[in-house]
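Notes from the 1:1 (GR / supervisor)

We went over the backlog. Supervisor wanted to see one worked example end to end before approving the batch request, so GR pasted a single chain during the call. The sequence is below; no edits were made to it. Supervisor asked that the structure be written out right there so they could see what the output format looks like.
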Amino acid sequence: MNKPQTPKIIPKIGIRGVKASFHDVAARKFFGVQDIQELECPSFRDLCTRLRDREADSCMMAIENSIAGSILTNYNLLETFGLKIFGEVYLRIEMNLMALPGQRIEDIRMVQSHPMALLQCDEFLANHPQMKIIEATDTADSAKDIREKNLLGVAAIASRLAAEAYGLEVLGAGIETNKKNYTRFLAICRAEDSKSSALANKASIRFEAVDQPGSLGRVLEVFSQNSLNMTKIQSVPLLGRPYEYSFHVDLEWEDRSHFDKAMESIQAKKLVINLILFGEYPKGTRPSA
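Structure output shown during the call:
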C-alpha cells in the first residue's frame, strides 16, 4: 500500500508591489524556489503590518540600492514593528521595456513605471522623446495594467519576470543606464519566529551614541579591535528629536566570539544607548566592483 504523500508546504512571502515585481524576483532568488505564494502589499508599512498579523510567513524588504542609496523609512519600520532579519540577497536590477505582442518600439507613445525605474533609464528615454513618461506606483503593476486594459501604444519598464507573468513582449532588454545597478533585500520575520543560525556571519544592529565628544569613534574602534568588518553605517533621524540620530551598522566576522565580545564591550563601557540587534544571519554574496 502506498503511503499518503505529505502535502507540499508553499511559503507565503510578503512582497512590496504585485506579482513579478523586483521584490518577487528577490524572494524567488533568496528562497531558491519558484513555488511561492506572493502576498502583494501596496506599501512597506502594509508589508510589516501583515507580517505582524501573521498573514505572511516572512517578507522581503528592500533596504538599499547601489545608485539611490538607503531607504531610511524602512529602518524605522523594522524598529517600530519589532521585526528581525534572517537573511539578505543582492539583486541586479535589469530594466526591460515591454508592451503587448506585435508592436515595435516606434509604435510606443507612452511609457509607465515606478519613478525610480524611469530615472534609472533616463538615457534610453532621452533617445526616444516620442514616449510620454507616466509615473506609476510599481514596475510590475505597470505591466499588469497594460495587459488588463489591453493598452496599445503603451509600454512598461519592469522585470523580465513581469513580461512572462503578464504576457507582454520585451521590446528593449537591459535599458537601464547604469549596468551596475543592485538592490539589497532583507528577509524579515516576526521576532518570535526568529531562530539563530550556525551559519550566521553577519549582524545588523542599531544604537545611539552617548552625547560625548568622540563617542561614535570609540564605538567604531571597538569593532576594529575585535576584527569586525563594518560593511555599512547609516545615520537615521530620530523621530520627534530634531537633529539627533540613531546609527544602523552591519558587521561581518570570521569568528562569532569577536562579535559577542564587541557587543559586551560597547555596553560595559557605556558607549551606546538603546542598542537593538535586528538579526544575525548568513551574509549574502555582494556584487563585485
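Supervisor's comment: The two ends are 57 Å apart (CA to CA).
Batch request approved.
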